[in-house]
Amino acid sequence: MTYQGLIHRYGQYLDLPAHTKPISLLEGNTPLIPMPRLSRELGCELFIKFEGLNPTGSFKDRGMTAAISEAVGRGAKTVICASTGNTAASAAAYAARAGLRSIVLIPEGKVAVGKLAGAIAYGAEVIQIQGSFDDALSLVVEITQKTPIALVNSINPFRIEGQKTAAFEICDDLGSAPDWLCLPVGNAGNITSYWAGFKQYQKGLPQILGVQAAGAAPLVLGHPVEKPETVATAIRIGRPARGEQALEAAQESNGRIIAVTDEQILSTQRVLASEGVWVEPASAAGLSGLLAESAVGKFEVKGRRIVVVCTGHGMKDPSIITESFQSPKVIPADYAALIEVIET
Ligand code: F0G
Predict the structure, then answer these.
(1) 235: CA distance to ligand 1 center in Å?
(2) Which of 32, 29, 35, 64 has the alpha carbon at shortest distance from 50?
(3) What is the tens place of the pLDDT at every residue in 82-106?
(4) Is the distance from the beta carbon of residue 86 to the nearest atom of ligand 1 less than 6 Å?
(5) Contacts of 117 (CB under 8 A, 6+ apart)
(6) In this structure, how many other beta carbons lie within 10 angstroms of the beta carbon of residue 201?
(7) Ligand 1 contact, 249 CB (< 6 A)
(8) Tell me, what DSSP letter sits at residue 279?
(9) Burial grade of 170 (CB within 10 A; 0-12, 13-18, 19 or more)
(10) pTM of the model
């Protein structure tokens, strides 16, 4: 039978209410891409779980199929979320599929163009907040407490249920959990989901390396960050909703949460692209953390099986690339000019 999406494939492992009415765009089932060159350089067995290949280009679709399926089954008519962009695009797509109205709140001027375009294309009502993601999240929590509008941020437990499926897929592909799982941490829903998923699936437990951006690293600093700043706008978050659970996941797994600089993130984005995997900046944070830790001897990679989660596609944030590179050469449309430019 052809693939029918995550609720169909893993529904028996997901704690979803009976009224859930599956809404799917055939999310999940993303590849675990071997990285032979990086593996050789590091002396380990490295895989990228490429979540950018989900229907709307990020891992958010895993949780959104669950959250929207539950919301529509209970009769919700409108959904809302705060977002740094990917949740917005995903909520908009699944709401469209289900015939629901969607409203998304985003921090003004801080959302990558591919995400904003997606949210608009799928028909969301996009509202820019003169504030941060954290401010937007407070507002959507308040409005969903006072009105029948359904919240589809990862505070919604069904988002976490859906996102556990990535851990299940990794175990199914490898036959067991890897030694390490490295991933970016923003609002901390995904690290929470992976840890819950691995614990539930009983195919072994990885150590978890969660990675924040240095300018938005509340879980490393141990306190909220009032004005988070990073080039990795997806994880530009100062008060993670599931921060406690993220710290628990790191601790229980015998792993940790660290921070990397924007320069490290961007250079790792290039490393990944040089092996054929183009991801958005936030998605490079997991590998960036692994490279930084192993470079200073804090991470024994030798002989280990490591999965790095790349959460969103590079096409989400094209301006990061086009702004930092020289624009391509322009030549007359003739052979002599072409051969000259290639050979010099
Ligand atoms: N990577 C990407 C590409 C993201 O979009 C996000 C979060 C994360 C990592 C971090 O995941 O929040 O579960 O710790 N994006 C949210 C959004 C905040 O609104 O799209 P997390």
Answers:
(1) 6
(2) 32
(3) 999 999 999 999 999 999 999 999 9
(4) yes
(5) none
(6) 21
(7) no
(8) B
(9) buried
(10) 0.97
Q: Is the CB of 132 within 6 Å of ligand 1?
A: no
Q: Where do the H-state alpha helices sit in the chain? A: 6-10, 36-42, 60-73, 86-98, 113-121, 133-146, 157-163, 165-174, 189-201, 218-221, 243-252, 262-273, 285-295, 318-324, 335-343
pLDDT at 326 (0 to 100): 76
Between the CA of 145 and the centroid of ligand 1 the distance, in Å, is 23
Q: What is the best residue among 30, 50, 60 to mutate for testing ligand 1's pocket, by most ligand atoms within 8 Å of CB?
A: 60
Pocket flag, ligand 1, residue 166 (CB < 6 Å) = no
Q: Supply the residue whose CA is at minimum distance from atom 15 of ligand 1.
A: 234
- Write out pLDDT tens, residues 250-284: 999 999 999 999 999 999 999 999 999 999 999 99
What value does the mean pLDDT of the chain take?
A: 97
Q: Which two tokens stand for residue 233?
A: 């706008």
Centre of ligand 1 from the C-alpha of residue 86, in Å: 7
